[in-house]
Design brief:
alpha/beta; ten-stranded mixed sheet; two-stranded antiparallel ribbon; about 240 residues; 6 helices; Spore Coat Polysaccharide Biosynthesis Protein SpsA, Chain A
Length: about 240
């Protein structure tokens, strides 16, 4: 991976998985089995294709299950650092909560722990490394929720219609994105906050600070419901 700036991957594993109950009553959603192994291991394998050398995973619901699934705190020889959240902090709050672990990282890759995908990640890394915007989002042209707007230059100009700027194209946000660790200064410590308003705030204050890359190759699925989980379990992913 050119530049080796994106060496750490933050996998968001702390969600409650309420839409997957009763499957998630005693198991974090990323640890549900998919073709014989936890969903999160498919995420990790995907990230290994771009050469990350450390995983950080936040936990909340049933944190002991992660320790049982990864007793040696590694996957395929790559170390895993777990960071527990006694209070669920959401995506931006969870990112801020690992700030002390990122002192040697200029940028990191974030990946929702309930996503199963095999789309190429190299373009995202190359674009973020070249442009060094505050964030670079991996997008899709089609999907269930097209609520990220990009302009002619590929810059993200709106998310969830919060800025009333439709741009030229509406896209799906895959939950995979690269961020400069400098963006953490815009997130309050201990705050329960989604990454979306943080990014929208940066777009408002500094247009062009968030870019998007549309990648329609490969597969992408959000394992958010029982139906989606059962469908993926039956199609032989991974």
């Amino acid at each position: 991976m050119k530049g080796r700036r994106l060496k750490t991957a933050f996998i968001l594993g702390a969600g409650l998985g309420t839409r997957l109950r009763p499957l998630t009553e005693h198991c974090p959603k990323p640890l549900l089995p998919l073709n014989g192994r936890p969903i999160i291991t498919h995420v990790m394998d995907h990230l290994l294709t771009i050469g990350v050398d450390r995983f950080i995973v936040n936990t909340h619901h049933c944190p002991q299950a992660y320790a049982m699934s990864f007793p040696d705190r590694t996957w395929r020889g790559v170390p895993i650092v777990f960071r527990h959240e006694p209070v669920l902090l959401d995506t931006a709050g969870g990112l801020k909560n690992i700030e002390d672990l990122l002192s040697e990282d200029e940028a990191i890759l974030c990946y929702n722990g309930d996503v199963v995908a095999d789309l190429p990640l190299q373009g995202l890394c190359a674009l973020h490394d070249r442009e060094r915007t505050e964030a670079t989002l991996l997008l899709r042209s089609t999907g269930p929720l097209l609520n990220v707007s990009i302009d002619e230059a590929g810059e993200v100009c709106d998310m969830r219609h919060m800025l009333a700027n439709p741009g030229i194209k509406s896209c799906l946000f895959t939950g995979i994105y690269a961020v400069e660790t400098s963006i953490l200064r815009f997130i309050g410590a201990g705050c329960v906050q989604s990454i979306v308003p943080v990014l929208v705030g940066r777009i408002r204050e500094r247009p062009g600070s968030v870019r998007g890359l549309v990648v329609d190759e490969g597969a992408w699925d959000d394992v958010g419901t029982v139906d989606a989980y059962e469908r993926l379990s039956g199609k032989g992913a991974g």
